[in-house]
Automatic annotation (TrEMBL):
<comment type="similarity">
    <text>Belongs to the glycosyltransferase 92 family.</text>
</comment>
<dbReference type="InterPro" id="IPR008166">
    <property type="entry name" value="Glyco_transf_92"/>
</dbReference>
<feature type="signal peptide">
    <location>
        <begin position="1"/>
        <end position="31"/>
    </location>
</feature>
<protein>
    <recommendedName>
        <fullName>Glycosyltransferase family 92 protein</fullName>
        <ecNumber>2.4.1.-</ecNumber>
    </recommendedName>
</protein>
<dbReference type="Pfam" id="PF01697">
    <property type="entry name" value="Glyco_transf_92"/>
</dbReference>
<dbReference type="InterPro" id="IPR029044">
    <property type="entry name" value="Nucleotide-diphossugar_trans"/>
</dbReference>
<dbReference type="GO" id="GO:0016020">
    <property type="term" value="C:membrane"/>
</dbReference>
<keyword id="KW-0328">Glycosyltransferase</keyword>
<keyword id="KW-0732">Signal</keyword>
<keyword id="KW-0812">Transmembrane</keyword>
<keyword id="KW-0472">Membrane</keyword>
<feature type="region of interest" description="Disordered">
    <location>
        <begin position="133"/>
        <end position="172"/>
    </location>
</feature>
<keyword id="KW-1133">Transmembrane helix</keyword>
<dbReference type="GO" id="GO:0016757">
    <property type="term" value="F:glycosyltransferase activity"/>
</dbReference>
<keyword id="KW-0808">Transferase</keyword>
<dbReference type="GO" id="GO:0005737">
    <property type="term" value="C:cytoplasm"/>
</dbReference>
Length: 571
């Protein structure tokens, strides 16, 4: 019969088990490994600050496990690089390498299951220069088992067909499609003169007003190629607000990279964002001879639009006459002739540029991007929609508009410590109109609500908080600056137009934090229309609603300045 273990042996076993348990549950130090800038440096695994009682080794597996790009192995294969993401309403966005050949209008999304759909060119992305295309996912592909596979973009170039087919045959096999509905780093821009990089990402700060501390967020720069993912640098974020994260730049010799975000204790999120060292053209756009924005001007106007071509001329001509020097149009997927209208305005001498912005419901991030990217080319920037016109009743009796004494006088009148001027809004109703007035909105709608509604702002770009936090209507300014409400000017908001125009709003709103018109939530919100439900059904008597005050001040002024229908040029 075997004798029981001695007390001494039991004690030694207990001490050994306690030591092992203490080792396994100890908290690792919050060490962060930095990586050499040289492209010849070997890529190593990255350790990020961890949460207590966990020991987690960060890899880049999660970044690309459902991505749709690959870096070719040789120069002849350098063009196939592409990313693809599934947007709402079964729309697929495809981004090509900046150096990919320009295609003709005949581009197609070829899906792995054999289905295909026409691809529409959006132009080049403003920061990366990547060519953007959208296409619809065919119904047969929607019925396939998830996860969905990314399409390949097949384009017709000026190259011989045999050469084009050879190039297409070397494209990487389609991988899994990124999902807009999940967490995603979707864009990035290097800011000239600051040494900073803005990374735009969904899902890190998932709720309005709840922002993760910047100390919890790491900016991860890496290379993605056929041999695997290699981390080049990981740096702590400087700011974290909404979908915008300000990051330090990677080492200067790193060159073009991918960039994503990692929350302490977690894997990096999927990414289609790229980083390139800043150039003089950072923040540039397209469709205008003035898109390089080399000269700094006093007043810019920025707006995000979709299918507003027929409204744009009136908005630009009017605001240019009262003091706006430059117009920045962020195009959120227009399918009308916006480009043609911008070309005509540019040819007429107006400084107008379009900037591709395909990301749905990201208006706040888009405005943050614009404020940072154009800081060196604009002193002040007005963030107003194309149905909003800045106006002062003091201008009503002027025989002609003035670039120097109207809108500029509004910002010239404030003290040096004012970083933002707030303008109250007057909301105009349909004014009896049953269709879009041929003479334009300022001359066609002349009856409004009595109450003053929420404001819009003109901001001094160098006064903004580094976080670029905004609520569309206004930005956060640095502590040494303040905001002031203008007593001179207001915004005429032609909000409730003829029903055929107003119902277009039901497609999708652009703000991240405002419910779409068809979402059955927040019925009493100021973002809703009084008396209107969740469907695009014309209420009885719509043409005569929201008419409490007859207001013809701007109508009469624009008739005097431009004639009826803005057919003449301002003098």
């Amino acid at each position: 019969m075997q004798s029981p273990p001695s007390p001494r042996l039991l004690l030694l076993l207990a001490l050994a088990l306690a030591a092992l348990l203490a080792f396994l549950t100890s908290t690792p130090t919050a060490a962060l490994h930095h990586y050499a800038a040289s492209s010849s440096s070997p890529a190593r695994a990255l350790l990020v600050p961890q949460q207590p009682r966990t020991q987690h080794r960060l890899t880049l597996r999660a970044v690309r496990e459902d991505a749709s790009s690959a870096t070719p192995a040789n120069d002849d294969d350098r063009y196939p690089l592409q990313d693809a993401v599934l947007l709402p309403d079964w729309e697929v966005l495809v981004l090509l390498h900046p150096a990919a050949p320009e295609s003709s209008s005949n581009a197609t999304c070829a899906f792995p299951g054999g289905a295909a759909s026409p691809a529409r060119s959006l132009g080049r992305m403003p920061a990366s220069g990547r060519q953007a295309y959208t296409c619809a996912m065919p119904r047969p592909e929607r019925r396939r088992n998830k996860p969905f596979r990314a399409p390949r973009l097949v384009t017709t170039t000026t190259a011989p067909s045999s050469q084009s087919q050879s190039q297409q045959s070397r494209w990487p096999r389609p991988e899994m499609l990124l999902r807009w509905s999940g967490r995603l780093a979707y864009d990035a821009v290097a800011l000239p003169g600051t040494g900073d990089v803005l990374v735009l990402a969904k899902g890190v700060n998932p709720r309005q007003g709840v922002n993760r501390p910047a100390s919890d967020v790491q900016c991860v720069y890496y290379r993605h190629n056929a041999t695997g993912d290699g981390v080049v640098a990981s740096l702590p974020a400087a700011t974290s607000a909404q979908q915008v994260f300000r990051c330090p730049a990677p080492p200067a010799t790193a060159g073009d990279l991918r960039v994503t975000l990692a929350v302490a204790g977690g894997e990096p999120i999927p990414s289609m964002a790229t980083y390139s060292p800043p150039t003089a053209a950072s923040g540039g756009g397209s469709s205008s001879a003035h898109n390089k924005n080399s000269k700094k001007v006093v007043m810019c106007a920025c707006t995000m639009v979709r299918d507003v071509a027929k409204f744009l001329r009136e908005w630009v001509v009017y605001h240019a006459a009262v003091g706006v020097d430059r117009f920045l149009i962020y195009d959120n997927g227009s399918q009308d002739d916006l480009e043609g209208e911008v070309r005509q305005l540019s040819a007429a001498g107006f400084d107008v540029s379009t900037h591709v912005w395909p990301w749905p419901k990201t208006q706040e991030a888009g405005f943050s991007y614009a404020a940072a990217a154009h800081r060196d080319s604009c002193e002040w920037m007005a963030f107003v929609d194309v149905d909003e016109f800045i106006f002062s009743p003091r201008w009503a009796e002027s025989s002609r508009p003035s670039k120097s004494s109207m809108l500029r006088s509004v910002v010239a009148a404030v003290e040096p410590d004012v970083g933002q001027v707030s303008l109250g809004c007057k909301d105009f109703g349909p004014s009896g109109q049953t269709k879009h007035p041929e003479e334009g909105v300022t001359q066609g709608y002349a009856c409004r609500r009595r109450a003053e509604e929420r404001h819009k702002s003109v901001v001094r770009l160098d006064a903004l908080e580094p976080s670029l936090m905004n609520s569309i209507h206004h930005f956060e300014v640095r502590p040494e600056f303040r905001w002031e409400r203008s007593r001179q000017a207001r915004v005429n908001h032609y909000k409730y137009q003829a029903w055929d125009e107003f119902k277009v709003k039901f497609r999708r709103r652009v703000s991240t934090y405002v419910a779409d018109w068809t979402d059955p939530v927040n019925h009493g919100s100021k973002d809703r229309t009084p008396g209107l439900g969740f469907e695009a059904v014309e209420p009885e008597g719509w043409a005569h609603r929201f008419c409490e005050v007859e207001d013809t001040l701007l109508r009469d002024a624009t008739r005097r300045w431009f004639g009826v229908g803005f057919t003449s040029r301002p003098s």
